[in-house]
Amino acid sequence: MRRVLSEQSRTRGTACTPDTLSDALLVASELTTNAMLHGGGVTDFDVEVVGQNLYLSVSDRERRRPVMLDPVDRHGRRRCSGRGWPIVCRLSRSVLVSDLPAGGKRVTAVIPLCGDSPVGGAPAPGRQHRNRT
């Protein structure tokens, strides 16, 4: 992913910040970890830069969609897991979960590359989080 972003920055003449790269790497890590832990493994991984956005897609074998969990369980104890999906949603301009024809799902996170971060203030224009239950 570092290579893709570096090449795109050089080609387009726009420098992406270290924070942008860190956000993209963290989202990639969380999506692939979720696919391995909850989705039966990663079946496809795709990175594409379109305009000023990075489209990061991870596919797995499970049709169940990611869910937002409360940070505490029904007994009031803090959960040891369940932080990945909120991180993905927070760092992404939009997140789309789609069913795959042969089974499984694809999760696509759209990450703003330069100067339009959704973190730390009002959401970026058009920011959507779809299919969270």
Automatic annotation (TrEMBL):
InterPro entries: Anti-sigma-factor_SerPK (IPR050267), HATPase_C_sf (IPR036890)
Gene3D superfamilies per UniProt: Histidine kinase-like ATPase, C-terminal domain
Protein name per Swiss-Prot or TrEMBL: Histidine kinase/HSP90-like ATPase domain-containing protein
